Amino acid sequence: MRNIKFGLSISLIFLLFFSLDSKAQNSLQSPEEYLGYELGSKWTPHYKVMDYFEYVSEASPLVTFQQYGTSNEGRELVIVKVASEQNHARLEQIRTDNLKRAGLMDGEPTSNIPIVWLSYNVHGNETSSSEAALKTLYELVRPGNAESKQWLANTVVIMDPMINPDGRDRYVHWYTETAGDEFNAYGDAREHHEPWPGGRTNHYYFDLNRDWAWLTQKESRQRVELYQQWMPQIHVDYHEQSYTSPYYFAPAAEPFHKAITDWQREFQYTIGRNHARYFDSNSWLYFTREVFDLFYPSYGDTYPIFNGSIGMTYEQAGGGYAGLGIIKPEGDTLTLNDRLMHHHTTGMSTVEIASQNADKLVSEFSQYYNDALENPSGEYKTFVIKADNNPDKMKALFDLLDKHNIEYGKAARSRTLNGYNYETGTTERVSVSENDYVVSAFQPKSVLARVLFEPRPQLADSLTYDITAWEQHYAYGLHGYALTDRIDANEAAAPTKNVNNTADGAPYAYLAEWKDLADLQMLSDLLKNEIKLRYAEETFTIDGITYDPGTLIITRNGNTQMGSAFDSKVQEIAIRHGQQLNPVPTGFVTSGSDFGASSVEYLKAPRVALLSGEGTSSYMVGEIWHYFDRQIDYPLTLINVSDLGDVELHKYDVLILPDGYYRDELNGPRMNEVQEWITEGGRLIAVEGANSMLAGKEGFALKSKDNNNGDGNEEQAGENGNEDNLEIYGERERERISSFNSGSIFKLAMDNSHPLAFGYDDTYFTLKRNSDAYAYLDDGWNVGVAKEDAHMSGFVGYKAKEKLENTLTFGVQNMGSGSVVYMVDNPLFRAFWYNGKLLFGNAVFFN
Ligand SMILES: [Zn+2]
């Protein structure tokens, strides 16, 4: 144990007073006693939270400690299971009974115990909740607490004290080294101003409260695997918001996703009323039913809801700005102690109300899953993934479905019927064959499947602050249909590729297709192993097989220094990535260009740099960083914007500009240097908001649409002024959203003869997250464009929709020997748009 001295001496004192066995209850130390300080007087770093949780599990027979994983930086991720001694003895039965109830395991449940899951500190700098977790654990199992003893008689509580330890420790360490002996409550003090990137996110600057459905982050994958083993009836996700706000708890605000049931709404009221009782008696301010909506499926409240739980967000005033104490506008000082007390109160109140409604919670949960099997909600009953899709893309999607226990299989029989074609966006006659994969709505995870595959998710209200579309055919680049008819599925495994890479002899070259992320991962590996290769700019045919542009050509020529090791090395890499190589005996093609021709480009391993640090969007920096570090495993140099002046640009081939507020760093002389570097062969990739900085600038071909000054993403005042209507004050928010696009799916026409679109069809579905509209390039390649009626799914304001017609999304401008790649949309957003990963790779690796 890693007790501090004071903690040890307190425990010694206790031992003197009480004669105890190892798990005797009377000896249980409070967090204050164990840690040696008042909760709220300073922060408890991750390792001490772990210590206390472990200590309680050793000291109390009501608690079991379980490590379920580690964070990116190697910190432990844990839960404790809290239950009466009697329920502890049959915890495994309670767990499996719950899975049986959900239809995820065979058999009939014999117990009737609901599970409440409390998740703390998903946002690292919303620190009070892990402190509250210490107190809540203690109070739940404190020997003298008769109330909690009663609650635990019929309720199991699972507590995850720190979902995001890397982010929280980032904040806690920074604050601790920044503040003085006593906290300074004035907002001007530096301890209220976290440096970039802040503590909210995980190691790779991902918001873990946006990742529950996509599971792109290590922490989420391990947690959801555990979550799926329990399937709680109630899940609470603890947060903090602006330090000036009152406390927020359920019920949540519109828009609700239509898949949310009446019971799930109703019980939020029941819970809210119980919390209100405690808050009223303490004269604490609170609010409900505003701001926090339940639509996007990847939050810590919606994901549990779409898994049959009552999922909720509780928000305390505070956040990174609040420090240990902050003066509020009314003059009071908000302290960490206040903050943790509020979160502690709602935690206890949640367990209390769950216990009071235990039977109802369990029976409604059963009903939810019975409905899923027998009478699933939603218009569509079957989602089809056509068999002729790229097997790697299908496998990636099925891997995700497996993690959520969403069943899929092959169509039980062939049929022709009406269906929504994701690609055309229309309902038409479609045929389903026995080889096609289907996801039926008649299954335990019906609602989650519906939410992930519904072509046009229905909002009860259009006001939301997050993306409104995420359909998985679009995200994974798969053809298929949504059917209102039921088609049953026969169990079938995900498609497997038959890969055979044992070419005999010494072929002239190996050819590899260029179609998805797996191919890109293999390219990265080949380049890191210093294998020289080329890629085809045009279609060619050899040995009776036609190869598309982008095909990798790994010739023996250029790799002769490897000698006979060449073949085994190349084959070994292909096998590692599950990719098929086609060996060919000649470079003389039947049609197209020979491998030595000028249209067969040599692919030089690019040296890639990414701007980061103060002034850039930490989210986007993290998305690009994670992409190189964890997805394609290719070296990337992150350079702080403030250091750019000292960097010799010629050491890099590619420079990536993420979203950011660039000031002097990329203006004036510095910009001239960047342009000179491009002219000499560099490639600048501007992503999403970074394009607004380049638009209209001398030398850059990018121009804002209908806007001559080049910097405008704002609505044109003149246009609004001409409208013959007076704005109604009460409608102001609605009026504002007419120009709004917080995240919807658009269909792009792709020029796939350009290397930026190699590996794609002539359409690509993009997640567009703003209404930034750029004109087609006069001097450049318009590789991906949104034409008229390009909007496919999600909410977009009518003015924004109009503005985005006939605009550039992906384009390339040649500049001297180099080029500028304009990526108006970010294909790496939250790392979940699988089909965009190759596109970003094209921008990095192909000229
Ligand atoms: Zn939060």
Strand content: 15-25%
Q: Tell me, briefly, the overall form.
A: globular
Residue windows where pLDDT falls under 50 for at least 5 positions: 1-22, 708-725
Strand elements, count: 36
Number of helices: 25
Report on the biggest sheet: 10 strands, mixed
Q: Provide the gyration radius in Å.
A: 29 Å
How much helix is in the residues? 25-40%
How would you portray this structure in words?
It is a single chain. The protein is 31% helix and 20% strand. A hairpin with a 4-residue loop joins β15 and β16. The radius of gyration is 29 Å and the shape is globular. The N terminus is likely disordered. Strands 27, 28, 29, 30, 31, 32, 33, 34, 35 and 36 form a ten-stranded mixed β-sheet that branches. A seven-stranded antiparallel β-sheet has the order 16-15-18-13-17-14-19. It has a six-stranded mixed β-sheet with strand order 1-2-4-3-5-10. The longest helix has 21 residues. α10 packs across α12. By secondary structure, it is of the alpha+beta class. Zinc ion binds next to loops.
State the gist of this model.
With 847 residues, the chain is an alpha+beta fold.
Describe this protein with a few key phrases:
binds zinc ion; globular; ten-stranded mixed sheet; alpha+beta; disordered N terminus; seven-stranded antiparallel sheet; 847 residues; single chain; 25 helices
